[in-house]
């Protein structure tokens, strides 16, 4: 039969409470008692029931991360950052996909409600500000990548507006004045902020931005191609295109090349994210780099800090972007 905690206590000549404190690395146990308990554990080959112990303490050392889909490849670096930070703190990350569905996201959050996990990180949530605020009063949650207006919840993201501004300002500095934008119909905070950055950069450079120069679709690769076709049919098509994601930019590049348009010569293209694929095809994509790994590390660091603190911090952290100059932008 497997040894119990009572067997260990008897063999070590201490109380069950002392054994429990040793297992929990309590500083209140003397070195001598700790050594006695550890020796008894080895001799009896005792294996603690960590699940039962964690449930009694209402702690699991597990954090749930919910992503909207697996199609956005930049999530991989964010998740790696989360996992590395969690490991440093003695935590684990459970990853689930909501498929951008409200009901499924709530069902996944049952793991938080029934204390199967200690906290939850939401990447691109479908929940509104009121619901998030209510959750934040009772549980430990954080938003990652996408902020929600009106939600006073711990949030970690990149400076989306600043990054878009830098991209469009760079296109202007390269000599472009007719600059189109491919965005999304879904009013996500990141897309809206990137559109603000696009418009502000043009305005600050004294360039008008007709609404026809903004194409809205989805984040799908195919919508990059559709956006390119839309611009090509305009009486005065843009000579540069800023896309709110590298996936959309890749769709533009592929479609342009298939129609004999040389990207980086006949037209300039800039993306956003700096996913690994952006430097793997020809021409290499000029883009705005998100510090994905640091976003993942930071959100877990801050969330665990909240778990261990007497009061929660609902700070909004915006990490810096970086302009990556490659081959898809021509300097006129």
Architecture overview:
- This protein is of the alpha/beta class.
- The chain has three domains: 5-48, lambda repressor-like DNA-binding domains (434 Repressor (Amino-terminal Domain)), CATH 1.10.260; 62-158 and 292-320, Rossmann fold (3-Layer(aba) Sandwich); 160-290, 3-Layer(aba) Sandwich (Rossmann fold).
- The protein has helices spanning 5-12, 16-23, 31-44, 50-56, 75-88, 102-108, 110-113, 129-138, 160-173, 189-204, 221-232, 246-258, 292-308; strands at residues 62-67, 92-97, 119-123, 140-144, 155-158, 179-184, 214-217, 240-243, 268-273, 286-289, 316-319, 322-324.
- A six-stranded parallel β-sheet has the order 2-1-3-4-5-11, with helices on both faces.
- The longest helix is centred in the C-terminal third of the chain and has 17 residues, at 292-308.
- It starts with a helix and ends in an 8-residue tail after the last strand.
- The relative contact order is 0.12.
CATH class of the largest domain: Alpha Beta
Order of helices and strands: HHHHEHEHHEHEEHEHEHEHEEHEE
Strand order of the largest sheet: 2-1-3-4-5-11
Low-confidence stretches: none
Using the coordinates shown, work out and report the CATH topology of the largest domain: Rossmann fold
Tally of helical segments: 13
Number of domains: 3
**Largest sheet data:** 6 strands, parallel
**CATH-defined superfamily of the largest domain:** Response regulator
Sheet-strand content, in percent, reads 15-25%
From the coordinates shown, what is the CATH architecture of the largest domain? Answer: 3-Layer(aba) Sandwich
